Amino acid sequence: MNFRYGYFYINESLSEVWNQSRSYWSSQKKIRIISKSSFSTKTFAKMHLSKKGTFTQSEEYYLRFVTDSHNPNITHVRVSFEFLGDSLTGATGRMKRRINNWINALNLPSIKFTRKPLKEYEVFFSKLVEEEKKEKKIQFCPHCGQKLEEPKKFCHMCGSELI
Fold first, then answer.
1. Model's pTM, two decimal places?
2. Range of 36's domain?
């Protein structure tokens, strides 16, 4: 199994890191931004990148950005990548260099990669993503349109059950 998970943090807000990252990856030849998530709540965002190779080969990169819950000017980043294709020869080293070039462009030192996701970081990222989902769950009653201050089982205006 190859080393393909990396973690780091940067002393900048999520929007600053996001804009720098989007600009960097957009400027890279043959790298496409497949999808990007919104960070309207300013706490979580993700980006999926792809570099298509010959025939069925491709390099896939997955970036997650999370605002530190104690300091909004710190952004934690989780990186993972995978190679889809016949041969892994040389791909892992090239992919690590590509990620570290991006990290260096953010004015940070290169990072080391791990074979498996690190539990303490995964728990951290999962917890923040779950908090994000709870915050976004229901903001308006789908039946009467009443704004809901916090998630509840029933709308306080029309009494409809909320999912």
1. 0.72
2. 5-117
